[in-house]
Amino acid sequence: MSRVVYGKKTGRASLCKDFEIRLNEEGQMISLKNRTDVYQMEWLNGKEIWGTILAPDELAVRVDRSFTGEGCLRETYRFQNTSPFDVFVKRDEIGIYTTFPDDYQSAETCMKQRCHVHAWCGCNTAYLYGLRMGGEAPHLGLVLTEGSIDGYSIVRDESKSSNDRGCLILHPEAFHLASMETLTLSWELFWFENREDFFRRMRRYENVLLVCAERYITFPGESQRLKLIYGGGLGTAPDALPVHVIRNGTSEMVFSKTDEEGLSFGVEGMPEEYGEQCWEIQYGPYHTTAKTLALPEFQVLLKKRCAFIAGKQQYQASDSPLYGAFLIYDNEENRQYYSHLSDHNGGRERVGMGILLARYLQKFSDPAVENSLRLFRSYLYRELFDRETGTVYNDICRNNDQPRLYNYPWAAEFFIEIFRLYRNPEDLESMYRALMAFYRNGGQKMYAIEIPVADSLELLYENREYKKREELLACYRRHADFMLETGLNYPAHEVNYEQSIVAPGVDFLLQVYQATKEDKYLEMAKKTAADSGTF
Fold it and tell me: Which residues are registered as beta bridge partners of 397?
């Protein structure tokens, strides 16, 4: 293991402006708080201590920590080759733990004491953007000021399942050190109020190069233009600094105009091949990376995706309960995969592939895709759905070892789209029964994804099922009223706190508002979107 030396050893708390930090006897930072924070959130949390280092034995590491004149906390990591031989360090061979608190307790705890971490590791430009889950400042940011970071990995506490979102480990770009040579990596941490404030503060640093795309996804006929926003002193004389841009290994013509924010450059025409476009940008002494995506026409893309589902992902052995199922497909192994355990089974979100095929066939004729969809419909009715009770099973053989309410809206959406395609009354009835079973089994307190409020009510009305429409609308009202009572203290579902249910909750409230025109649902949707910290 590498020898690590810390520049300051004290167990007492240190203060500088709004920072309050505490070190252990070895000099490792074990606590970091904002002393003005009314919730006194602890920003260090994980199985490992902040700044724990993974490195080859040949490298000695010195860690120094200080406060800047602007009130930022600066950390510097110096890696020295103490062996008599050259050391070539591969990517991911060195790692530094940054233990932001990203795990799920109760909703109340998460909103005040936990954060989402947005990471960008773009070589000389790298940052971590720690946003408190409730959206209330102060938030904590980290910006690289010296060196290069080009990747990160995540280590999770598997004993906590999905309630632990993992600890970030930052990885420097691969490098080579001669004997006794040193490489330095340095960053600064600072408090910020919101996204705009974070990027404003970030632009003070000279090494920062932010690449923004006019379009991150381009289709045929659309040109690609990017803007380079530079930081610090680099912005004073852009014409004097060379700019080099390489896309997918090929040098590109760049530099078109400069404004007060940065310089913008473009590439004429579309790339020769569709897919990911990897950009390398060198501006003066600093370099960074960016990625965009080039796709064919949407109709072509849609057709290829549906053909792939029908041709590659549908299980064809007629003697198996999986006959007709859409399965996970491993593109590296070129084979299907199934496991009865949780998210790899034959139900759940795989029903979404059937929804896509049904919607596609409403617009386009495709016999192969239609045969595939008919086979899947038979599979779903046989293995995953009970026509009488409306029960949506978790896996084949009508298995409900893990009853899962998330499955019901997926099934209802499928029945909606296939009813629109074939107008079979059985599918409309199945939609109604699946949604009523959802509410009988506790759906009123469930923030499920894509509950088809508007579509279900519309179809029942159009087909003169007025009583069923009123019954379902009453369920939707009770569900929305529960959301009003709950506020931002979201109930636990598959994990203790699900930030991903905020958007479905807003969507549901807006749909109920459209159906009822009652302002209370609209106001709650606005409040949820504004106060959750997700939007």
Answer: none
